[in-house]
From TrEMBL:
Involved in the degradation of asparagine-linked glycoproteins. Hydrolyze of N-acetyl-beta-D-glucosamine (1-4)N-acetylglucosamine chitobiose core from the reducing end of the bond, it requires prior cleavage by glycosylasparaginase. The keyword Ligase does not apply. It holds the Pfam family Glyco_hydro_18. Residues 1-360 form the GH18 domain. It comes from Champsocephalus gunnari (Mackerel icefish). This is Di-N-acetylchitobiase. Its main location: other. SUPFAM superfamilies: (Trans)glycosidases (SSF51445).
Length: 360
């Protein structure tokens, strides 16, 4: 009797998970249409998604808790909702482990009526290592399984701003790009390994950012496989020393072989930045070499901080480059961190940030 009840309850749980939670059953059908231009949004949870500019959004990667309401709404707007996929690299060297992981993710996507998966593995590895080959096989196997089991589904893979072993992520970028539907290029955190002067700099300097895409394209990766990721956040750096020229010297925090990194700072949302910049010591400043805004402020202990971030002026030329280079689209980390309140200034700032994704 116990086994019968256990078996029955298991069936009930599976069935309940696959019951469409939407008011209209057709909203549980996976999205199959391809858009000519991707606007790719990472969502980390909560309900701010209700205020996104859904006239633009094509794909949402759900990095927060599963939200059936978000799935139904995204589908009502013709947008995909995709899973997050992450795994410890040594685990996938074993083929059986890879197969089990892929099967689990496909079944989860089916049960939640999702439209694919975003594979976010940002771990270090050496070129030619067992993990190097296993990761490529994982992406290939995931894409094949999703396309077979969920027709029209999308498999994407997150990569650093350059293919040149950034943060020791020495992946087979060419093979991975060929194996999946798109690469989401994280064109931010570009100061994760500072080899020169340990000073505060832009999160995503324009020239360096665009050079990263030239490097991907030089590998003969199809530009239609590349989605440019831009930051909707910045870094707040405490200055060990602040020069007369406005240079902020940082504490040395090593990262993956580099003596200095952006880990000396704290990530701050665009929402927070907009509340601080006008009342800061300097007000908004512009670095014409890096094509990025920043400002200086003094904390309660009297220490000077320098904050580097992106805003519409710095994002617009990047968005223009998406079109001129023929890339698949643009997206951001992350959609939740604008101010979606009804305050008029906030509404205007938020609208302009969304519009900046389409270029100048």
């Amino acid at each position: 009797m116990f086994y019968f009840l256990l078996f029955s309850s298991s069936i009930f749980l599976v069935c309940r998970a696959t019951v469409c939670p939407c008011e209209r059953p057709e909203l549980c059908e996976q999205i199959r249409d391809e858009r000519d231009f991707e606007v790719y949004v990472f969502d980390v949870g909560g309900k701010t998604w209700k205020s996104y500019n859904w006239s633009m959004v094509t794909t949402v990667a759900a990095f927060g808790k599963y939200d059936a309401e978000l799935m139904c709404y995204a589908h009502s707007k013709g947008a995909r909702l995709v899973l997050k996929g992450d795994i410890h690299l040594p685990y996938i060297v074993d083929q059986d482990n890879r197969t089990a992981w892929i099967t689990e993710k496909v079944n989860l996507a089916k049960s939640q009526f999702m439209d694919g998966i975003n594979i976010d593995i940002e771990q270090a590895m050496d070129e030619g290592s067992p993990e190097y080959r296993a990761l490529t096989d994982l992406v290939k196997g995931t894409t094949e399984a999703f396309h077979r089991e969920i027709p029209g589904s999308q498999v994407s893979f997150d990569v650093a701003w350059s293919p040149n072993c950034i943060d020791k992520r020495c992946y087979d970028y060419v093979a991975i790009a060929e194996s999946c539907d798109l690469l989401f290029v994280m064109s931010y955190d570009e100061q994760s390994q500072i080899m020169g002067d340990c000073i505060a700099m832009a999160n995503a300097p324009l020239s360096q950012t665009l050079n990263g895409y030239d490097q991907f394209l030089s590998l003969k990766i199809n530009p239609k496989k590349l989605v440019m990721g831009v930051p909707w956040y910045g870094y707040d750096y405490p200055c060990l020393n602040f020069s007369q020229e406005g240079v902020c010297l940082l504490m040395k925090v090593p990262f993956r072989g580099a003596p200095c990194s952006d880990a000396a700072g704290t990530q701050k949302t665009y929402k927070w930045i907009m509340t601080q910049v006008n009342g800061s010591l300097s007000g908004r400043l512009w670095d014409d070499k890096q094509k990025a805004p920043y400002f200086n402020y003094k904390d309660q202990e009297g220490q000077i901080h320098q904050v580097w971030y992106d805003d519409p002026q710095s994002i617009c030329p990047k968005a223009d480059a998406v079109k001129s280079k023929g890339l698949r689209g643009i997206g951001m980390w992350n959609g939740n961190i604008l101010d979606y309140s009804d305050e008029p200034v906030a509404r205007q700032q938020t609208a302009v940030m969304w519009n900046s994704l389409l270029g100048c």
